[in-house]
Predict the 3D structure of the following.
Amino acid sequence: MVQHVVMFKLKEFDSPESKLAKMTEIKLALENLIHKIPFLREIKVGFNSNPEETWDLILITRLDSLEDVKNYAIHPEHVAVAKGIIGPVKADRACVDYEL
């Protein structure tokens, strides 16, 4: 089993409300992937609640293997969320994959 963890820093928004709305859209779109990608075992998305930290969102997924992580990355449903919803507002990204 592999845990795939991604942190996102978003670009600046006009208001805290518009940032929260976009973060909620991202969360729902990512979490909905559990119903669209059969080899995705678990997915969670959380918002940073500590304003002194850099990252805005965290994505935690579980897959059976690193091969599944690679296939997740190129799956059309994932690509649609990554490029269509996250991409336009992403300022930075960090990722770690580790075996459980």
Remarks:
- The beta strands are 2-10, 40-47, 57-63, 90-99.
- The CA atoms of residues 1 and 60 lie 13 Å apart.
